[in-house]
Design brief:
single chain, mainly alpha, 15 helices
């Protein structure tokens, strides 16, 4: 089956409209996925303080490992979009199948870290009570790493085919199911066993398996998608495709690790300043992360649109697709900045118990940090958009190094210098984060626009 057709060059208005229509459900899916974390944290927090602390550290640990493995899923997106534009249905299938292979292998390989989580947590200096509870969660939730990565691959493949609505609705339903299972198993409601933080682990595993089954059935058996034969001879090793997904996906995963590590390091340094400072830092990051999910969705849309133009060997269309995604991202960033500057106190209050003695301090610092997040948003939006555009032309290794240098050679030292050496405290730490993100945005954008005008660039980007 060959689906390629010679499409006329698109106008800029068409690029804007199609990028928006593709990016909107992807952004919604990213927000819904983030909501799973928020729901778990809130519901376990109602159960107990120790359990909530254990969930926070174990969920962040799970996420960091997931980010590395999800690089293979993110690699499937440009490969599938490029193959679809060329009409190469065999390549479209091969990329997704080997992405699933690598995801399964990665999930199995890392599971011992979850099984022995208590030992790992104690080695990292965590409270023994917290370490025990974290292991209870991770031994169960860790079983969900394979289905979680499988879901990410299927989401990427379906998005490359323009099937973003199913990705959104499955994620939204998963959030609802997560709340229901949490209600039963965390608290032991309606005669269910009271499992505490382990109940949240069961809920997480359940929704990951549910999502994988639904998306797998949809991708494999929907009449419109059945001709692609996604699971045809799934058991057969395809070494060339495996290598391609590996070499494209590993740098993506390591780039995500570098970025998530930046924020983990900032939390550690904020903890050195004070517990109340860390609380304000966490609240401000939670709010900005929700807004950031919109840019993640648009970044994925940019990857697909740019990869498709690259597959058609249309450099002019590629540049227009890039500009459309960037303009939409800037519009969203400006809207978020206006909200952060206008009503920061209203936003921060939603995360605070006014009865607690330190709430006034946390509120004041949280408002200050959220105002700084106006700069944070624009820089963060541009760096994630640049990464999405570069993935569209299958350029991931050099961007990995540019991002790592920006975050860890520039951003973290700047935060430490401003916060501790120059004694600007929490504000200085956040300014350092902004500096690192600006460095990433500028360097990555320059790289993309240096490469973008060149025809036949897919898979051949170089310095």
């Amino acid at each position: 089956m060959n689906t390629m057709s010679q499409a006329p060059r698109q106008s800029f208005a068409t690029h804007l409209r199609e990028t928006f229509m593709l990016g909107l459900p992807l952004a919604g899916s990213s927000i819904a996925q983030f909501s799973l974390h928020v729901v778990n944290t809130a519901m376990v927090g109602w159960y107990g303080v120790v359990q909530q602390g254990a969930l926070v550290i174990s969920a962040s640990s799970f996420f960091i490992i997931f980010v590395i493995g999800s690089g293979f899923a993110r690699a499937v997106m440009p490969l599938a979009a490029n193959a679809r534009a060329k009409g190469d249905d065999a390549e479209l299938r091969r990329a997704a199948r080997m992405g699933l292979w690598l995801s399964i292998g990665f999930g199995l390989l890392v599971y011992p870290l979850f099984w022995y989580a208590e030992t790992v947590m104690l080695a990292l200096g965590q409270n023994p009570e917290v370490a025990i509870e974290a292991q209870k969660y991770l031994r169960i939730a860790g079983l969900g790493m394979v289905p979680a990565l499988g879901v990410a691959v299927l989401q990427a493949w379906l998005a490359a085919l323009g099937r973003t609505q199913i990705v959104l609705w499955v994620t939204v339903i998963a959030v609802g199911l997560n709340i229901i299972v949490n209600w039963f198993l965390i608290f032991g409601n309606a005669g269910a066993p009271e499992m505490g933080v382990a109940g949240a682990g069961v809920a997480t595993l359940f929704v990951q398996v549910f999502s994988l089954v639904v998306l797998g059935l949809y991708a494999g058996f929907l009449p419109a998608l059945r001709p692609f034969q996604l699971f045809r001879r799934f058991w057969r090793l395809d070494l060339p495709a495996l290598r391609q997904v590996w070499w494209l996906g590993l740098p993506i995963g390591l780039t995500g690790l570098a970025e998530s590590g930046l924020f983990q390091a900032s939390a550690i340094m904020m903890g050195w300043i004070g517990t109340s400072h860390l609380a304000a830092h966490g609240i401000a990051l939670e709010i900005t992360a929700m807004a950031f999910m919109c840019h993640v969705g648009l970044s994925n849309a940019a990857t697909i649109r740019v990869a498709a133009a690259s597959g058609r060997n249309e450099p002019a269309d590629l540049r227009l697709a890039a500009w459309a995604a960037l303009i939409l991202s800037v519009v969203i960033a400006v809207a978020v900045i206006l909200v952060f500057v206008s009503v920061p106190e209203l936003l921060v209050r939603q995360f605070l118990d006014a009865a607690k003695p330190d709430s006034a301090f946390v509120l004041g610092l949280g408002v200050t940090l959220l105002t700084l997040a106006a700069l944070f948003q624009l820089a963060d939006a541009m760096q994630v958009m640049a990464l999405g555009l570069l993935r569209g032309i299958q350029d991931t290794t050099v961007p990995m190094w540019l991002a790592a240098i920006s975050y860890w050679v520039i951003g973290i030292p700047a935060s430490y210098l401003l916060a501790f050496v120059l004694d600007y405290g929490a504000v200085g730490l956040w300014v350092g984060l902004v500096i690192g993100l600006v460095a990433a945005a500028v360097s990555l954008m320059i790289r993309f626009w240096l490469l973008a005008p060149k025809p036949g660039m897919a898979g051949k980007a170089a310095l």
